[in-house]
Structures
1.
Amino acid sequence: MKVTRVAYSQDMNAGKLAQLTEQAARLGRVRSLVWQQYGSLAGVGVSGREIRDRWMADGTAAAFGLLANPWKETVRDAANDIAASRAAAKVKVRQAVCRRTSDPGERRRLLMLLKSDRWAEDRFLSRQMRKHWRRGNNHAHNQIVVRSDQYRNFTLAEGGNVWLAVPGLERRSRICIPLNTTVAPSGTLRLILRVRGVEVHYQVDASSLRSARRPCGGETVGIDRGYREVCVDSAGRRYGTRLGDLLTAESDRLRAKNARRARLRAVAAKAELVGDFARAERIRRHNLGRAKYRRQAGQARQAIRTETYTAVNSLVDHAKVIAVEDLARPITGKSRGRNWNRRLAAWTKGVTARAISDVSGRRGSAVVLVNAAYTSQTDHRNGTFGQRSGRLFYCFDGVVLDAEVNAAVNVLTRMSDPDITLWTPHAVVRQIIQARTDSHRLKLLSQDSSREGGERIIQSCSAVSSN
């Protein structure tokens, strides 16, 4: 498995940064041209090499003002992005095909046309591809892709930080970038130009990382992913307890900042209406820029990511097998108010899922996905319905449990449940749990045959059901 590592420039010279920025801007125009000409039906079945050969033959490449290798790598990268967007659309179309027909022969025919990029021959497939595959646009004007044989690493002193020498705009010219690391990048590099320096992205084998040599634990646990913390396991341990504070602080900061920016945009628009174009331009240039906005958002994302990965590493210190809810589909429910809805929209459950997959893969633990339906609304002791309120879970027999730990134990139990599989519909899951609840209540009624005891149990069950 490959993972991406990022090295950062250190004390970058302004002249060098300007040269790299100019090169990235020209490569951005090349990337935009690829998307413009081959980002739709004209690009089906066309590889990056074919685009390169066409442009070299018709003279298009001569107008780029770039060395051959940089623009060729950019063409290949853009063609791969287009192919990836087309493949993502095919996933949706395959789902539509399965919903449309139950005939195996017709389904096989449609799927084969889709796989071989001959979907334009069928009206249904063509209509679905137009629906799910929209023409894209290039927004990357700050990236340079450098092939592995086009740069070199060196150090100025033994044990010192690495320098990276990459091609410039002129032939046989090199731009040397000082990095903040002693680890030399390898393979194909992606240079991303920022306001204050350069990010060097490269891939390494996960088995070579230091965390890959760190063994996992020996327990089998279930986890409940949450907003206040990264997760809680079935043993009651909590991991990443700062996550909720980080998410709330960033969400509230963006709310206040976006409100101020909206007021400034209104002032600029009003200035334009009265003819004061100079003032409107000053506001947009000095008060509505995106560089600081993106930098602060990136710092917040990095803090959240660090908290998540640290928490998952602590989890894997204990766990050999991890049962996890499958939260791929959107979660619907009652509205919790504007503030909480906004904060929950920023909940990084995808980052947590990626961290669990990455860390467990490197350290040798296994991840088992289970059905997430009603794991937070079921009493783990007897499989009956109860009521969750915040961090507390109220059972129908009056017992109050920790809601996160209860859900984590349910996830662990769900891993070996013979009646509820990963693909069982949530409506069927509800029927199964309701049947277990009714069966358990009947047992309690038969144990307490007195009239008063039976009425008491029925009243308590009715109260929980009505809530």
2.
Amino acid sequence: MDTKRMGPIEQESTSAGAVAELDVICAPIRDEMDRLAAFLAGEFESREPFLHAILSHIASFRRKRLRPALLFLFHKLSRGRVTEDLIKIGAVLEMIHTATLVHDDLLDAAELRRQVATVHCRWGDRPAILIGDYIYSRAFELSTQVPGMAGVLARTTTEICEGELLQIGHRFKPRLEEEVYLEIIRKKTAILHAVACELGGRLAQVDEPISRAFHGFGLDVGTAFQVIDDCLDFAGDEEVVGKSLGTDLHQGKMTLPLILLRERLSPDERLWLESVLVAPLAPEDEERIRALVSEHGVIGDCLVRAQEMVDCARERLVFAATALTSARGAGAVDEEVLECLRVAAAYVLERKR
């Protein structure tokens, strides 16, 4: 298969095997995920009717909960004991992610999230800002209940905000370098995956080199996750993805598909592209850009990059498993969980939403 000439992302992905389903990934941690769901149900309730209505609406987004799943899988891989603290940290990770989605939808003027109206579309900008802040605040309060976790999660949230601000600061800048793009997505998206993986090990008291390998796995997988998300914005099916697409172009974001396209155009085409990307696009210019993305096989090139990131993550996983075995003896690594983590990396590439 010539992955460099692949078209829409709905075509066959570059990873081998069947599509990785989340229920397969979560099979060894079903109890933890059920406990998380019950815990979060309580967090998304309020005795104040207006607040309860918004929280209940957000709870209906049917989130994937990939980040807490990674936390639980790495904890189980390390033979950690399941405690209430572990469930709380899973909830904190999911709540931080949820708050970022509420704010992102507002910043992107998105109308849908998981086939449901976004908060700002239903209640307005002010409630969307404040409910995101409310969820952040509650997450921080929870994190203080687990020793040693509040500082880590606060720094992570700071990085997420830095990534978003960095992206906003580079809107409508068509000469954005790939290195800056990667820095943006590592901060705004990948860091939360990385910390989820790292904390899974830290709560199980693994050695520092193993914890760093867990972190690196999450960073690679999270970066690939965002690359695929940026591809879906061009080539996804809104009915399948379940959220508003095309927002990156409308908001002047230079994502990997546009960066790679820019490098493949003729000098005249590149000048045209850079001239139209400095301001909100006219419909005919957007249509032409989408046609060029398809014509030049850019989505396939992005999938190759994402595959390379996932391959790197799998190498880190091998190192971590070997180090765990060396440190704790034969049988220290749960092979079923190890396979689920490999599948989780494949899922990032295969996902359609």
3.
Amino acid sequence: MIKEKSILFLLLFFLIAINYSFLDDKITGFLTESNLEEIHVDRIIDGDTIESNGTKIRLLGINTPERGEKYYKEAKEFLGELILNETVQLEFGKDRIDRYGRTLAYIFYNGENINQKQIENGFANYYFLGRDKYYSSFKKSWKQCIDKNSNLCEKSNDKCSQCIVLKNLDYKTQEAVFYNQCDFSCDLTSWDIKDEGRKHFAFPNFDAKANGEFIVKVGNETNKENVLFWNQKDYVWTRGGDTLFLRDSEGKLVLWEDTRER
């Protein structure tokens, strides 16, 4: 009896030690496959929205340029090349419908995550309210895109792109504090700040002083010498985490920082 208990104890210890990795992978894979829903892609609306049987489907975890913005057309065309008139699989997240009545989903085709491919090819940034199961892999794809210097990930060659750094981004005060670390002033006119979603701030005629700080703050007040106000009704930076993207006047990337990692 004692021998049998010892064997049972060792077996349980072994299973805990390996963390059921084999069984866990199999079960997870089974649950993922069983939760997928097949649809036919009838129309590409833009780089992150499609239509199937009259239903609009918004691709989760990404945000592509809007109409009139750089790479809008390319993002839409690339998505069309991948899945237009094809049968794809949908995987749903926590919320299935957004406030506009669109279905929210990750799209898979031939075993590939199409949402993620938009990021990999520089046609989208990752976009999460907090985190979910694909946050880490999507962020990794964004970093790979930066390394490839492709499309939305193309680095700025403006001399001031090496000067401007982000010192702090505070969702409580809705302030982004920047610092010009160069010994000369930088003309930031028409530079752009964007969050993970669709909110943009275009710099007015503004010179960042040499070796000096300046602040971009959400609010409706009048600009001061080193404080610029971002006219928004409520907030820009979300409590659950967000990313700031700073671009030069040509739309090329100067810096980006994810507040989830702070």
4.
Amino acid sequence: MRVLGLDIEEKLIGIAVSDALGIVAQRCGFIENRSKIYVVEKIKEIIAEKDIVQVVIGVPLNLNGSIGRRGGIALEFKKVLEEAISLPVDTWDERFSDKSIGRVLAQKGDARRRKRKEKIEKVAAQWMLQGYLDKNRNEIEEYYYEEG
């Protein structure tokens, strides 16, 4: 039972997919954010190819938990995706993911600030999906064993 994680950005949408047991998130690259139609078609291809049973979209909330501009964009895309596919689409609060990834990279002495930003973009979907999987592991395992 694979879960697809999406990190919605203006130019690129980060993609991560869980392993078959829903335990470990793996990076799967990006989809160019050309248009909603283009992105939805690419996501449908990934869903079919990877045997996805659920989608999770990262929503960057403000520090006080409210929804800002980027969070609103992610929630709007969630609605579009729910109309286009017949799978459950959930959200995950990713407000601290970029800072957490940046902190890890900085501690490792990994790259200058500009390069660090590029690396953050590459792993943001994986980081977000892993957080979701860790938090929801019991629920996912129950589903897997019921369906298995």
